[in-house]
Amino acid sequence: MKKILLLGGSAQQVIAIETAKRLGYYTVLCDYLTDNPGQYVADKFYLVSTTDKEAILDVAKKEQIDGIVAYASDPAAPTAAYVAEKMGLNTNPYESVEILCNKDKFRAFLSENGFNTPAAAGYTDADEAVRDTDRFTLPVIIKPVDSSGSKGATVLRSWDALPEALDFAFSFSRSHRIIIEEYIEKAHPYLIGGDIFIWDGKVIMWGLMNCHRDNNVNPLVPVGKSYPPELTEKVFDSVKDTLQTMVDKLGIRFGAMNVELVSDKNDRVFMIDVGPRNGGNMIPDLLGCIFGVDVVEMTVKAAMGEVPVMNISEPVPYYATHNLHTDRNGVYDHIRYSGELEKYIIKKCEYKKKGDSIERFDNAAKALGIIFMKFSDSSEMIRILDRINELYTVMMED
């Protein structure tokens, strides 16, 4: 029986373990958290940090694995590539994965290769960043170079709050390094976000969607996706050309990529973030509804060197997700949905149980769950999504 090593056993990563087992692989899991749910699903579990490359390599050699996956995890993606290269397994270049997982390396790559990119610089010292503000034009975004889910990110339109923004960014950086970059004002209603899938160096699935935000809580944190994207044909073609060119230059051979882009008033496309992994917030599940394929299965098979499903269907429109969340801290009781919203919901995934502590939604890890919705047309979808916060209530204990 072939063995696959999976890095990360959180609730959202369990699906990768389950999929690998269904495909007939022996599953080995590594995670540094003692309470991860994946350990009860995998065939074998090691309590090891997924960012400790040498420790993971030791496990991989001991188990004589045939493939490795860092499902929906930016921090673990370089580890997976490193181990696979060392063992001669199917992988994308470790150096390229490192570039994609480090925001200042990624900005340097974009600049050196002629992509549209905002002015940016990385810092390990807050005082140096404060002294360097003259090189930037406001607004700017300040964020860790090595985090995901908008953790530690702040948009500044005045330098007055710079010290707090720097402290916030540094607090989420494992390497104690942050990046400041000029903030691109988008010309279209939403950011462009989602997952693409690559096989044999070519993008075979364009899972690009509208990326929704909640400006009342944190305008940087995604609160859901909707399909199809509201883009002109010109911008959509430019987005596809930009991403395929990036794939070519980095030598990416296979797998999912989580992408976020924006176009400005001159229709210039900017890559904001690209992660060499499946997206979180159940994006693969949403793409399964839209394209009629099992994206998790594609990911697992590709990592094992097997050809993934290639018969991707014509996309079905008017699907959306929403990350359930709250704007205050408290103790969770339940979620009450309005009748108007209920008729569009096709699937509910609630993470919390009565009595759990919950927090204000300022990063993706604080979502309370996800709902999937299906609409009959674009206007109906946008009408509901624009006021969705009014259509459900997070009930808390007194």
Q: What characteristics describe this protein?
A:
398 residues, alpha+beta, four-stranded parallel sheet, 19 strands
With helices defined by DSSP (H or I, 4 residues minimum), what is the helix count?
12
The helix fraction, in percent, is 25-40%
Task: Give the overall silhouette.
Answer: globular
Q: Which sheet architecture does the biggest sheet show?
A: 8 strands, antiparallel
The strands making up the biggest β-sheet line up spatially as 13-12-9-10-11-14-18-16
Low-confidence stretches: none
Structural class designation: alpha+beta
- Share in β-strands: 25-35%
- The N- and C-terminal alpha carbons lie at a distance of 53 Å
Radius of gyration: 21 Å
Please outline the helices and strands.
Elements: E1 3-7, H1 14-22, E2 26-31, E3 44-47, H2 53-63, E4 67-69, H3 77-87, H4 94-100, H5 103-112, E5 120-123, H6 126-131, E6 140-144, E7 154-156, H7 162-171, E8 178-182, E9 191-199, E10 202-214, E11 218-227, H8 233-250, E12 254-263, E13 269-275, H9 283-291, H10 295-303, E14 319-324, E15 330-337, H11 339-342, E16 345-350, E17 357-358, E18 369-374, H12 378-386, E19 392-396
Helix pairs in contact: 1-10, 2-3, 3-4
